Amino acid sequence: MRAWAAILVTLLLAGCAAEAPVETPAMYIDMATPGAKLDPVAAATMISQYRQNNGLGPVVVDPALMQLAETQASAMANANKLDHDVRAPLAKRLNGAGYAAVKAVENVSAGYHTLAEAFSGWRDSPPHRANMLSGGVTKLGIAASYAPNTKYKVFWTLILAEPGAV
């Protein structure tokens, strides 16, 4: 009787476990999928943890930098071109948006399908790593733009800044 009860409980638990949906962690969402949404808070958390592991302060999402990053990623996707200056140099884009910054740095990349891949690519590239570990920056904007008919499919922009007085 106990054996049957144990089997029944096991089957019931297995049935419940099979029904639970498995959600993809934000850093592994495939941005080369129509409608995929990048989670900027997850990105800020990932980059902040990396910075903290290297003795630096965290960064938080800044709506103005988010817009600037989105515009840059979209411009690269529309031009099918990986280029910091596809629209204009970063300083000119910041000034044009009225964003006063004491310091601002930018990482762009293309071809990475997930936030984890983009982060790893930046971390493993000395100039991109230096940007992520830039002292004084406290704000972040990040975007991924999907362009299915391009060589790279996904274009990324990360802007880190230390805001200044207007």
What features would you describe in this structure?
The structure is a single chain. The chain is an alpha+beta fold and 166 residues long. The chain has helices at 2-19, 40-53, 63-79, 90-96, 115-123, 126-132, and strands at 60-61, 101-110, 139-146, 154-163.
Features:
four-stranded mixed beta sheet; alpha+beta; 4 strands; 166 residues
Could you give a short description of this structure?
The chain has 166 residues and is an alpha+beta fold.
Topology:
Layout (H helix, E strand, L loop, with lengths): L1 H18 L20 H14 L6 E2 L1 H17 L10 H7 L4 E10 L4 H9 L2 H7 L6 E8 L7 E10 L3
Parallel strand pairs: 1-3
Antiparallel strand pairs: 2-4, 3-4
> Unreliable stretches, pLDDT < 50, 5 or more residues?
none
Q: For the record, give the distance between the C-alpha atoms at the N and C termini, rounded to a whole number.
A: 77 Å
How many runs of DSSP E, i.e. beta strands?
Answer: 4
Taking Cα atoms only, what radius of gyration do you get, to the nearest Å?
21 Å
Strand order of the largest sheet: 1-3-4-2
Q: What is the beta-strand fraction?
A: 15-25%
The arrangement of helices and strands along the chain is HHEHHEHHEE
Estimate the helix proportion, in percent: 40-55%
What's the mean pLDDT score? 91
**SSE class:** alpha+beta
How many H/I helical runs? 6
Main sheet makeup: 4 strands, mixed
- What's the shape? globular
